[in-house]
Amino acid sequence: MEELVTRLGWNLVLCIPFGILVWCLTRTPKICTRPAICHGLWLLVLLKMVTPPFIPMTLVPDVLNISADRFSKSAAQPPATIEPEQHPIVADSTTQTALSPQRSPSPAPRVPVILAADRSNMHLGRVATIATVLASLAVTMGIWLVAFRQLQRLQRLLTGHQPQSDRANQLLGKLAPEFRLRTIPDLINVDSPIAPFVWAGPRQPVVVLSQQLIQSLDDGQLEFVLAHELAHLKRCDHWSNLFGFFVTTLFWWHPVAWLAKRELGLAAEACCDAMALERCSGSRKSCAQTLLSVTDLMNCRELPGPVLNADGLRCSDKGFLPMSLDHYFDLLDWTGRQLVRGKKGRIPKSIAPILQRLKLDRHGWCELVGNFGKRFFHVAGDPTTIDTTQSRVNQHRYYMPRETRKVFREIKLTATL
User: Fold this and answer.
1) Could you give the CA distance from residue 89 to residue 100 in angstroms, rounded to a whole number?
2) pLDDT tens-digit profile of 27-52?
3) At what angle do helices 237-250 and 219-235 cross, to 10 degrees?
4) 18-27, 130-139, 302-311, 341-350: range with lowest mean pLDDT
5) What is the arithmetic mean of pLDDT over 284-313?
6) Residue 34: DSSP 8-state
7) pLDDT for 41
8) CATH number of 2-58+125-299: 3.40.640.10, 3.40.50.300, 3.30.2010.10, 2.30.110.10?
9) Quick check: 280 and 287 in contact, CB under 8 A?
10) Cβ(338)–Cβ(332) below 8 Å
11) How far apart are CA 212 and CA 299, in angstroms?
12) Helix extents (H) in 305-387
């Protein structure tokens, strides 16, 4: 038991530099653009955590056997014998007495003795090791119990699904042969704002979509979502996710396990996006807008209606309509183009929407406006313009945060797509 725990502990310690090495490799330009290689490397990290070391090595001496070795070495040494002093024997002329030599008693064998302090330390070490292992297993069992309850809730959600959508079924039947799947998965629509996912049950795999998501996406966007989920099924990501869940819950206290699981999921998502782009007719821009629409729908999980303010300063703490930012911009643009009585004018139909005319991305625009105080300090504008501008007072250049430059690069990249 003690030897097994010692080997497992040193194996987990060696996983830390291995995880750091993999993290550095996945940040290199040649590997970070290949998500399949990143996925395989992080899968190796998780696999290393549950496999014994290939080359046995001793990094520290066995502390528990130090006392026994010390006493065994002392017992192996021959005992030191003390010879008695020899005095000259004077022989009498009248009487001659023959003195026989006296034999020294044979030394008694010395038995190695373990001190009581060493014995108590060894006992406390065993008790502490067993207690630590039992506490870790107790936390693992608790996590598994919570996961089992969530699994039961998912089963109840799937049993109460809505009628299937004919449009989504047609797109699914069109995409399934391109992925060369053995069995075509079923499609389940649920009346809940959840992210689309694949449920690989014991009988037949199932693609779960939200009814609100199906209604808000067009055919091209819905085709990309279905292709993404079929790519997960083709790559058997459900097995790698299950393995990652097992390793993470077993070594919940190890930071490399959580890092590897997170990076494994990100690499799998990137691989599925690439596979979906290869098999869909849409452009990269439409696929990016699809991902943003799905994200906005997941964020709008509140029911419609007012939320009363506790201080009475406002009518409601949130809007009355649970809509995404894209739909809100569309509503504003549609409102500005309508002509009603009492309205002085309207936006002509020949003019493109305002963000399209300014070549701005909706997500980037909301990011800049919502975090304006964090993105800009003394001046606001394009980073290329601010870098060439100097202060009129002391002729110094203005500082632009790194996150702001990143947002502007994403906006320009989206505008060129």
Assistant:
1) 12
2) 998 898 899 999 999 999 999 999 87
3) 60
4) 302-311
5) 66
6) -
7) 95
8) 3.30.2010.10
9) yes
10) no
11) 13
12) 325-336, 354-357, 362-370, 372-375, 383-387
Provide the token pair at 232.
């997960």
> Is the Cβ–Cβ distance between 329 and 354 less than 8 Å?
no
The residues spanned by each domain of the chain are: 2-58+125-299, 359-416
Query: pLDDT tens, 236-278?
Result: 999 999 999 999 999 999 999 999 999 999 999 999 999 998 8
Q: Report pLDDT for 95.
A: 46
Q: Name the β-bridge partners of 209.
A: 189
**Measured between alpha carbons, how far is 224 from 212 in angstroms, rounded to an integer?**
16
208, two tokens: 């779960």
Say if residues 202 and 233 touch (Cβ distance below 8 Å).
no
* Assessment of whether the complete model's pTM goes beyond 0.90: no
Q: What's the distance, Cα to Cα, between the start and end of the chain in Å?
A: 60
What SS3 class is residue 31? helix
What tokens were used for 351? 């003019």
Q: Return the exposure string of 273-299: e unless at least 16 CB atoms fall within 10 Å of the residue's CB, then b.
A: bebbbeebebeeebbbbbbbbbebbee
7 is written with which tokens?
């080997």
Determine how many CB atoms are found less than 10 A away from the CB of residue 7.
13
| Cβ neighbourhood burial of 266 (10 Å; 0-12, 13-18, 19+) | middle
Question: Rounded to whole angstroms, how far apart are CA atoms 165 and 186?
Answer: 11
Q: Does the structure show a pLDDT above 80 at 339?
A: no
C-alpha 123/C-alpha 218 separation (Å) is 68
Distance separating alpha carbons of residues 142 and 149, to the nearest angstrom: 11
Nearest-CA neighbor of 247 among 56, 52, 43? 43
Contact 265, 245 (CB under 8 A): no
